[in-house]
Amino acid sequence: MNNNNHIAKKIAEQGSIEAYLHSQKNKSLLRFLTCGSVDDGKSTLIGRLLHDTQHIYEDQLSLLHKDSKRLGTQGEKLDFALLVDGLQAEREQGITIDVAYRYFATNQRQFIIADTPGHEQYTRNMVTGASNSDLAILLIDARKGMLDQTRRHSFISTLLGICNLVIAVNKMDLVKYDQSVFNQIKQEYLTFSKQLPYHSNLDIKFVPLSALGGDNVVHPAVSMSWYSGPTLLDILETVVVVNTVEQQQVRFPVQYVNRPNLDFRGYSGTLASGTLKVGQHIKVLPSNIDSTISRIVTFDGEQTEARTGEAVTLVLTDAVDISRGDLIVDYDTVLHPVQYAQVNVVWMTEKLLVAGQNYDIKIAGKKTSVRIDNVKYQIDINTLKPRTADNLHMNSIGMLELEFDEPMILEKYSTNPVTGGMIFIDRLTNVTVGAGLVQQTVQEIHRPSNIYSQFELELNALLRRYFPHWGTRDLLGGKS
Ligand SMILES: Nc1nc2c(ncn2[C@@H]2O[C@H](COP(=O)(O)OP(=O)(O)OP(=O)(O)O)[C@@H](O)[C@H]2O)c(=O)[nH]1
């Protein structure tokens, strides 16, 4: 059955189009990404998932029949990779590609898949895909076992806070569906995974499959009777995703001050976490000015409440001075601005990252600059252990010590991905060159005292002693 018939059947089951749409809307949503090395079978797997869950339109299916026959990549069979490799041509032409998002739904759930290419230089897209996902499917070619890219993508996924990993050992048909091959890869991965960030919170599942033949993707494989676990779709339909963001404290980065006329002044943005209500007492950081929400305006009209992820415009009872990049939080939230932070970085450009460089950064809607004070270490992708490094090259992951141009409201990435996640932008080319995740904000930093003159140090001490309300930073590293 193709997608058209499939949907028609579902509508008939529900009784009306309205009832069908309503049932779709109330299903939980799982966002996942597929990653792994080049040619591991990501596109084939996604094509197979869409096909076997009847999410391919009639015209797509006949085109797929035609293309598979014309190219003959799979003999007489369908080449599912062709279904999702629409970007292939762009790839071959070397055009920058982005993550391809695809949507499908089953009776249990709705899914959004981020398909990220496996080539080494495409780590950038993988990071983008992972930052919006609840679960990562890591494909491993059964013939090749674990590769650097498997380790790198596992590390990045977990660093970005994904705690559901599915290790899909693909192309089992090419190893004669041998259980020992699967077991060996599973064992190797389990040993490796002990080094992954937040290891104790990880839920790792293993499935042996053949994306090409459809074994254990949607339907259980007869060829692998030794495997009694769930199929990949079973896992996707039942995995429990804990969304803690909604319960977290309010973080509303102001993206835009909306002032269409003298009578209206609103602050637009997407609510990164928590909920906001009309009448709620709030505070604006870094200024610490407080006010109350008088209206919540959206594209579809006014509402009394805003939930995590909603794009809204807030109107306040007072005419306060708020600019783009400010952060609206609950009135009783205490967050101190910091000038330094230790940040995990995934470097994505050929130009080496070295200490002393300056970059523009964007964090929670705010744009400012940083200086790389120090490359603390690089992560060895095989052992996931830190090793000393003076620089970071493309695709490497490391820890930096940063100094911001101005005091910043930051949090650990693990506390809040919006106030703890940043991108690095090259000042000349305006290209995104890295992704950073705050590991630790640093209030105190110990600089060698001899970079300041005795007079500067004495003046600094006097200012801090007699004018504490100026918030002067301690040149020797004390709290501001
Ligand atoms: N025998 C066999 N071949 C497979 C299987 N899955 C994928 N392939 C083949 O492996 C090759 C690569 O598959 P793709 O789906 O294009 O791989 P990919 O990971 O999407 O590759 P990129 O998009 O280039 O990163 C194709 O020739 C597929 O037909 C499988 O389970 N068994």
UniProtKB/TrEMBL annotation:
* Chain ranges of the Tr-type G domain: 27-244
Q: What is its EC number?
A: 2.7.7.4
Q: Which family does it belong to?
A: Belongs to the TRAFAC class translation factor GTPase superfamily. Classic translation factor GTPase family. CysN/NodQ subfamily.
Nucleotidyltransferase found in the keyword field: yes
Question: Per the UniProt entry, what are the Gene Ontology biological process annotations, in alphabetical order?
Answer: hydrogen sulfide biosynthetic process; sulfate assimilation
Name the domain of life this protein comes from.
Bacteria
Question: One GO MF term, please?
Answer: GTPase activity
Query: Which residues does the annotation say bind GTP?
Result: 36-43, 115-119, 170-173
Gene name, Swiss-Prot/TrEMBL: cysN
Q: Which reaction does it catalyse?
A: sulfate + ATP + H(+) = adenosine 5'-phosphosulfate + diphosphate
Question: What's a Pfam family in this record?
Answer: GTP_EFTU
What function is annotated for this protein?
A: With CysD forms the ATP sulfurylase (ATPS) that catalyzes the adenylation of sulfate producing adenosine 5'-phosphosulfate (APS) and diphosphate, the first enzymatic step in sulfur assimilation pathway. APS synthesis involves the formation of a high-energy phosphoric-sulfuric acid anhydride bond driven by GTP hydrolysis by CysN coupled to ATP hydrolysis by CysD.
According to the record's subunit comment, the protein's assembly and interactions are:
Heterodimer composed of CysD, the smaller subunit, and CysNC.
Q: What InterPro entries does UniProt report for this protein, alphabetically?
A: CysN_GTP-bd, CysN_II, CysN_NoDQ_III, G_TR_CS, GTP-eEF1A_C, P-loop_NTPase, SO4_adenylTrfase_lsu, T_Tr_GTP-bd_dom
Report what the protein is called: Sulfate adenylyltransferase subunit 1
Which key words are in the record? ATP-binding, GTP-binding, Nucleotide-binding, Nucleotidyltransferase, Transferase
**Its annotated pathway?**
Sulfur metabolism; hydrogen sulfide biosynthesis; sulfite from sulfate: step 1/3
